[in-house]
Amino acid sequence: VQLQASGGGLVQAGGALRLSCAASGRTFSSYEMGWFRQAPGKEREFVAAINWSGSAIHYADSVKGRFTISRDNAKNTVDLQMNSLKPEDTAVYYCASEGRIGSRRFDYWGQGTQVTVSS
Predict the structure, then answer these.
(1) DSSP helix/strand/coil, 42
(2) Quick one: which of 45, 46, 76, 91 could link to 28 by a disulfide (CB 3.0–4.6 Å)?
(3) Three-state secondary structure along 52-86?
(4) What's the CA gap between 102 and 96, in Å, rounded?
(5) H/E/C letters for each residue in 15-41?
(6) In this predicted model, what pLDDT tens digit does every residue of 3-58 receive, in sequence order?
(7) 103 versus 80: which is more confidently predicted?
(8) Could you tell me if 102 and 51 are in contact, meaning their C-beta atoms sit under 8 angstroms apart?
(9) What is the 8-class DSSP label of residue 30?
């Protein structure tokens, strides 16, 4: 399983970025996908997750109302639209894939993409 994240960059507070994760190596549409982030000196934290069909979505409280996760099973991609960005959103963002169907355990990880929000 390969996960390739892209779309990070430098943006001013209040701005927006869209991250994308391309998956390959197995049947993408069967697995839950998620986004996580890790800021310098902090532990990795959950950001958002979406089930195989897109019918169940979960967000961390810190991003609710600002971030939107979506997936395109035909293109094997999962995106994270980030609006109203804050300096505290600065982190390396990782996409992840469920290891076994229904486990809700994220066993596969992409390489990460840096998001920097300036004040």
Answers:
(1) coil
(2) 76
(3) CCCCCEEECCCCCCCEEEEEECCCCEEEEEECCCC
(4) 14
(5) CCEEEEEEEECCCHHHCCEEEEEECCC
(6) 999 999 999 999 999 999 999 988 888 999 999 999 999 999 999 999 999 999 99
(7) 80
(8) no
(9) G
CA distance 111 to 119: 26
Specify the residue for token string 């997936």.
Answer: 71
Phi, psi for 106 (deg, rounded to 5)? -90, 110
Taking CA atoms, 43 is separated from 32, 68, 85, 92, 94, in Å, by 22, 22, 20, 11, 13
Question: In the numeric block, which tokens belong to residue 24?
Answer: 């390959």
Question: Under DSSP, is residue 40 helix (H, G, I), strand (E, B) or coil?
Answer: coil
Write down the residue that tokens 């894939």 correspond to.
97
